[in-house]
Specification:
mainly alpha, 0% strand
């Protein structure tokens, strides 16, 4: 089995982030269950902090160009905790899009290389505007 480039601590962080993602998906599937959405957010933030470290996490959320996304993400989390899960999730989704929008291309290319479902995911990604790998095809270089 090939070794991963992640340390053992970072692998635990990936597990926390994955658990957070599963809780978020479960919270949406259970008609925006407030407890599951809140647990998913907390696990995601803990996992992100473990993966990149507390200092880099604070720097990531405190960047000036990401201020809108950070405010929306934490406002959405606050709305979920204040018993407004649907509105909170929508606000939080906007914040996640602003915060992690730069990574969507990387995630799409990673999903494209998945062993069995990669070509099908690639066809879906090509239909989504902005995620296609051919978006800069008209550049001369």
């Amino acid at each position: 089995m090939p070794t991963m480039w992640l340390s053992d601590t970072q692998k635990i962080g990936v597990a926390f982030c994955s658990g957070g993602g599963f809780f978020l998906i479960g919270g949406v599937m259970l008609f925006f269950d407030r407890a599951m959405l809140a647990m998913g957010n907390i696990l995601f933030l803990i996992g992100l902090t473990i993966i990149i470290g507390p200092q880099k996490t604070l720097l990531f959320f405190a960047r000036k160009q990401k201020a809108k996304g950070t405010a929306a993400f934490f406002l959405g989390l606050l709305l979920i905790l204040m018993r407004w899960p649907l509105i909170g999730f929508c606000v939080e989704l906007y914040g996640i899009t602003v915060l992690f929008g730069d990574f969507f291309g990387t995630i799409a290319s990673f999903a494209r290389n998945a062993p069995v479902v990669g070509p099908y995911i690639g066809m879906l990604i090509d239909r989504i505007p902005g995620l296609s790998r051919r978006q800069n095809s008209e550049l001369p270089v």
